[in-house]
Design a protein that fits this description.
The complex is a heterodimer. By secondary structure, chain A is α/β, with parallel strands linked by helices. Chain A folds into 3 domains: 13-245, P-loop containing nucleotide triphosphate hydrolases (Rossmann fold); 251-336 and 421-508, P-loop containing nucleotide triphosphate hydrolases (Rossmann fold, 3-Layer(aba) Sandwich), CATH 3.40.50; 354-419, no CATH class. Chain A starts with 12 loop residues before the first strand and ends in a 9-residue tail after the last helix. Chain B has 14 helices and 2 strands, in the order ααααααβαααααβααα. Chain B has helices at 6-10, 16-46, 53-78, 87-103, 108-131, 136-155, 168-172, 180-198, 200-210, 212-217, 222-248, 259-269, 281-300, 305-331; strands at 160-161, 250-251. In chain B, strands 1-2 form a two-stranded antiparallel ribbon. In chain B, helix 12 packs parallel to helix 14 (305-331). Chain B is globular and about 60 Å long. The chains are: A alpha/beta, B mainly alpha. Chains A and B meet through strand 2, helix 10, helix 11 and strand 19 of A and helix 1, helix 2, helix 9 and helix 10 of B.
Chain lengths: 508, 333
């Protein structure tokens, strides 16, 4: 674009006219992409825009149909994982590729062709420490095994491993999807440090705040095509979203609710694993309640206790005036509680089964008579739910695992609509979901609330809480901090309450 | 320039990946059917007596015995609990118990019901241990050993002849020229297929096998399903035991020696997914016919026991490799 103030610098990596086709889907269409030395280049776009395909081309997993890749101006062949690694291009895996039972030091040098001769664990540890310092883990004992570490630390060790192999172009693919705010800061620090040392970073993310926080330039992909890179200083969030969506969407969040019905669910002195203090809360029909808090704050823990996934330590949940039997998912479902967890791959979906079956999995008692599943009812119910959540009816017979992340999330939440719960609990409703599908999910949750359902969702994204919730309940380290109406609070207040509230007891 | 909009283009037809998975499922069925067909063709061309009616009747009779056991284990496999390794002992124990009851002059229906109820309890106990966190292979291996020991004590390692003719029709009858065992097998095959595809229980079994955690989150109890599938497996094995006992008028400890591996081979040749959640009762049935026919053909060719066992092993390995390859090809690229 026009904004290139400095003299033209040879990009560390540049891709020209890359195309890749799968059957009749053009995943990449004549894409240009580059990253300079000492630069963080953000790569954004909706799911299906071609980001993952590009990453896989760079990792040497896909061979492009056409186009060329230049490393420091020299054409290179990325064919095969080994060649790509020799070219000093490395992907920080989304699915971590460390060996849990080996030590940190052993993992740092895992698969490394250097050295070769046997080294004592202590010596290996000392060598690993050099690389650990690069990723801000200097305090970590290199002789600990990986399974003793948090997800965030594991990710940084993965980075250390790549740095140990002299990777010059590092690709971070959604590195913070599974991390808390504080852990995310650690990753960001490392990214900045690598950049300051002259490394080239490609940062793929759905979280736009990270783009503005971290990147020097950003490249937007849409429908398999690239747009010219833009300097971060020349663009704002709205413009970025517009470029990602094209003309499709203007506002992300639906209007807030206006009416609030009777109390449908009451939490009385509820306590459980992950909750330090007893929680009292009344949930009203027709409202969306946002539980704001970081990982470990108790928001997810509360949803798990209420849904009957884990046993409470005390207190009770009332639906109307009837107590819900504790730690009994089946009873909770029958009494009108639906719960979509934050980890849809683990316990939200049957990835190997049909979408149709997934959508009716929670309603088997409604679509069967005397133990027989009635096909007609099954079809009717799955069509109805698909209609409510705009899931393509042509894909009801597809295997759930073949859907995109956004569509999978719609199925994972949508399957709770069958039993028509009075309270729908959703943990991180838009984790790993692209911007377009996100807006859609918000819209659907609002429709459900308009229809009289109470929606309770947990989120660590303050924008999401403010954009969607009518009532906002903040949590910090297992304690409920405050419960306010949407217009009684603001970003700064929520941020303070979920990071370091003054009220929080004398801990830490 | 042609301007293919991927979103528009992908909607009318079936999405690529889904089509690929569907075609791999069709391929699984085709392979199972084709294997049986090829085996019979080879038998017909090489060994004339293979296709004589009396021999075919033998095949379907022994296929029925393996098949009934395999159908029971299919529920265990589909629910993600791998296999039951106690079915041959359970079958033998049922045969012995039945022989005792008949020799004491108990009425046939009562004897049948008592044996089946006993099997239900034995199976449910194994399922219970698995539900509590036991490894299915280890639990059933232990139960199998215990049942074998118990049977050995009760019979003093002797064959129990009951000399009661009330059950003869059950063992040797041939309604419409087809052995009762085979009728029972076909009947159970259809029931198992209907239960798996059309009932809430079948759905629960497949869901638990496909993803235990998601099933639990949907209000299905994996522990209850474990108890149920192991009970079914034990009952299916005991049905096979009852027929065998009725056929020979006796109960013997070594009645089904080595049939565990044949039953498991039937399931694997039928292409059920080892990790659970995918498979079919009818394919297991075909798998049983394949294994029985293979064994029969080798007996006719005068292959020794060792050689026969070797080829069953080869069949298992080939089936597992082939179906795994198909599934991995369907899921990636």
């Amino acid at each position: 674009m026009t904004d290139t103030p400095v003299a033209v610098e040879t990009p560390a990596l540049s891709m020209r006219g890359i195309s890749k086709r799968f059957g009749h889907i053009q995943a990449l269409d004549n894409v240009d992409f580059e990253v300079r030395p000492g630069e963080v280049m953000a790569l954004v776009g909706e799911n299906g825009a071609g980001k993952s395909t590009l990453v896989k081309v760079l990792a040497g997993l896909y061979r492009p149909d056409s186009g060329e890749v230049l490393l420091n101006g020299e054409p290179i062949d990325l064919g095969g994982v080994m060649k790509s690694e020799h070219a000093r291009i490395a992907v920080v895996q989304q699915e971590l590729s460390l060996v849990p039972t080996l030590t940190v030091a052993e993992n740092v040098f895992l698969g490394s062709s250097r050295g070769g001769a046997w080294r004592s664990p202590r010596r290996l540890g000392a060598e690993a420490a050099v690389h650990l310092r690069h990723v801000g883990l200097e305090d970590l004992d290199p002789l600990m095994t990986i399974e003793q570490l948090s997800v965030a630390e594991r990710q940084l060790i993965e980075v250390a491993r790549l740095v140990a192999r002299d990777a010059r172009v590092l690709i971070f693919d959604e590195p913070t999807a599974a991390l808390s705010e504080r852990e995310t800061d650690g990753v960001k620090r490392v990214v900045r440090r690598l950049r300051d040392e002259g490394g080239s970073i490609i940062y793929v993310t759905h979280r736009l705040d990270e783009v503005f926080d971290l990147a020097d330039r950003v490249t937007v992909f849409r429908d398999g095509r690239s747009q010219p890179p833009v300097a971060i200083s020349d663009i704002d969030v709205d413009e970025l979203i517009r470029r990602m969506l094209g003309s499709r969407l203007d506002s992300m969040y639906p209007p807030h609710g206006t009416s609030r019905g009777d109390v449908v669910m009451t939490l009385e002195g509820l306590k459980g694993p992950g909750l330090d203090e007893r929680v009292d809360l009344a949930i009203h029909r027709g409202e969306i309640v946002g539980l704001a808090g970081q990982v470990g704050s108790g928001v997810s823990a509360l949803l798990r206790v209420v849904s009957g996934t884990v046993p409470p330590f005390g207190g009770r949940v009332l639906m109307g005036d009837k107590p819900v039997p504790p730690y009994n998912l089946g009873a909770a479902i029958r009494m009108g509680i639906g719960y979509a967890s934050s980890d849809r791959k683990r316990d939200g979906l049957f990835l190997g089964r049909k979408v149709e079956e997934n959508l009716t999995a929670t309603s088997l008692h409604l679509i069967s008579r005397a133990g027989w599943v009635l096909r007609s009812r099954e079809r009717a119910m799955s069509r109805r739910v698909a209609g409510l959540f705009q899931i393509d009816p042509g894909r009801l017979r597809s295997i759930a695992g073949t859907l995109s992340g956004g569509n999978q999330q719609k199925v994972a939440v949508g399957k709770w609509l069958g039993p028509e719960p009075s309270v729908l609990l959703v943990d991180e409703p838009t984790r790993g979901v692209d911007v377009g599908a996100r807006a859609e999910i918000y819209g659907h949750l609002r429709e459900l609330a308009e229809g009289g359902m109470a929606v309770v969702f947990a989120s660590s994204d303050v924008q999401e809480i403010l954009g969607l919730a009518d009532t906002i309940v903040t949590f910090f380290r297992g304690n409920l901090i405050s419960s306010k109406r949407r217009d009684e609070t603001d970003t700064a207040t929520i941020m303070r309450e979920i990071t370091h509230p003054t009220r929080a007891k004398d801990q830490k | 320039m042609i301007d293919p909009d991927p979103k528009l283009e992908s909607t009318p037809g079936m999405p690529d990946e889904a089509a690929r998975i569907r075609s791999s499922r069709i391929a699984t069925v085709a392979i199972v059917v084709a294997s049986v067909a090829v085996l019979f063709l080879v038998g017909w061309l090489t060994t004339p007596q293979f296709v004589q009616w009396s021999n075919l009747r033998n095949i379907i009779r022994s296929g029925a015995m393996i098949g009934m056991m395999a159908l029971g284990i299919t529920f265990v496999t589909l629910s993600g609990n791998f296999f039951s390794l106690s079915v041959s002992q359970t079958g033998a124990f049922a045969a012995i118990a039945f022989a005792f009851l008949m020799s004491w002059g108990w009425p046939l229906p009562v004897a049948l019901v008592v044996v089946l109820l006993g099997a239900l309890l034995v199976g449910a106990a194994q399922g219970g241990l698995v539900a509590l966190g036991g490894n299915p292979i280890v639990v059933t291996l232990g139960f199998g050993a215990a049942l074998f020991g118990l049977g050995s004590i009760l019979t003093d390692n002797k064959t129990i002849r009951h000399g009661n003719t009330a059950a003869d029709w059950m063992g040797t009858g041939r309604p419409l020229g087809i052995p009762t065992q085979t009728w029972a097998f076909i009947f159970l095959c259809v029931i198992a297929a209907v239960v798996l595809t059309r009932t809430r229980f079948g759905r629960n079994v497949l869901f638990v096998g496909a993803n235990k955690y998601a099933a639990a989150a949907s209000g299905i109890r994996p522990s209850r399903v474990a108890v149920q599938v192991f009970a079914i497996s034990a009952m299916a094995a005991s049905i096979a035991g009852l027929f065998l006992s009725a056929q020979f008028g006796e109960g013997r400890l070594d009645s089904f020696a080595g049939d565990d591996i044949n039953a498991i081979a039937a399931i694997l040749v039928g292409g059920a997914a080892l990790q659970g959640g995918e498979g079919s009762a009818l394919r297991t049935g075909l798998g049983a016919v394949f294994i029985a026919a293979l064994d029969n053909l080798m007996v006719l060719r005068k292959f020794s026991f060792g050689v026969r066992r070797f080829w069953v092993g080869v069949a298992i390995l080939a089936a597992v490799s082939l179906f795994n390859y198909l599934r991995s090809r369907a899921r990636t690229t």
